[in-house]
Amino acid sequence: MSANLRTLIDQSRYSVVFTGAGMSTESGVPDFRSPGGVWSRMKPIPFQDFLNDPDQRREAWRRAFAGTAGWVGAKPNRGHFAIAELVKRGKIGCVITQNVDNLHQDSGIPADRIIELHGNASYATCLACFLRHELADLAPGFVEHGEIPQCRQCGDIVKVATISFGQPMPQDAMLRARRETLAADLFLVLGSSLTVYPAAGFPLAAKENGATLVIVNRDPTPLDHAADLVIHDEIGAVLAAIITD
């Protein structure tokens, strides 16, 4: 199977990778929706509750600084590094990710080659003026003094830069992801259950546009029947075999 995938990548004119939670579970990052995942241990805070309820906003920041979601301290795994190597070799043009853990960037992929559909948990942004805030700068005020972060520029609400339930999807990222999807002649899905929309619509859009669709995931997905190649295996092992000369 890995040999077949290597051939497809070698023959591709423009390959796009689409990653989900399974990409990072091999780094010890729990996913959100499966039994034992993040949402089975704590109830998500909807976007409107974060905006309108100071207690919910405080709880969201408590979770952020406590590392409750489980990605604090996580390191890229061999799958991440294999993708980075394929990007470096010019075999992959773009990485579209549902993940918020920053591990693709940490693996060495340039930020401008990564499209984050659900945001990024490694920093925060102002919801009004969009100024970026580093979590390390916000932590002392909250942890030591209980101060809910506010924008240092405009004084408005600051939120970790992830997309919460009920929060609009980032339109720039969605539009760019669609352009990259339609440019691909090979669309490689890694570790996504393909059940979360609208993000999960990109693989089918690529397939309908004529791209070869490959799915590598530990468990079956709703799009396995549409894929040209399906590999039910650990992502790291599959990708490591591809980059080994």
- Gross morphology is elongated
Distance between the termini: 16 Å
Characterize the main sheet: 6 strands, parallel
- Low-confidence blocks of residues: none
Q: Measured on Cα atoms, how large is the radius of gyration?
A: 19 Å
Strand order of the largest sheet: 3-2-1-7-8-9
Report the top-level CATH class of the largest domain: Alpha Beta
Strand content: 15-25%
**What structural class do you assign from the helix and strand content?**
alpha/beta
Specify the CATH homologous superfamily of the largest domain: TPP-binding domain
Topology order in helix (H) and strand (E) letters: HEHHHHHEHEEEHEHEHEEH
Number of domains: 2
The third-level CATH topology of the largest domain is: Rossmann fold
CATH architectural name of the largest domain: 3-Layer(aba) Sandwich
Helix-residue proportion:
25-40%
| Count of individual helical segments | 11
Provide mean pLDDT, rounded: 92
Compute the number of strand runs.
Answer: 9
What does this structure look like?
The protein has 245 residues and is α/β, with parallel strands linked by helices. It folds into 2 domains: 149 residues, TPP-binding domain (Rossmann fold, 3-Layer(aba) Sandwich), CATH 3.40.50.1220; 81 residues, 2-Layer Sandwich (SIR2/SIRT2 'Small Domain'). It contains 11 helices and 9 strands. The protein has a 6-stranded parallel β-sheet with strand order 3-2-1-7-8-9, sandwiched between helices. It has a 3-stranded antiparallel β-sheet with strand order 5-4-6. Helix 1 crosses helix 11 and helix 9 runs parallel beside helix 10. The mean pLDDT is 92.
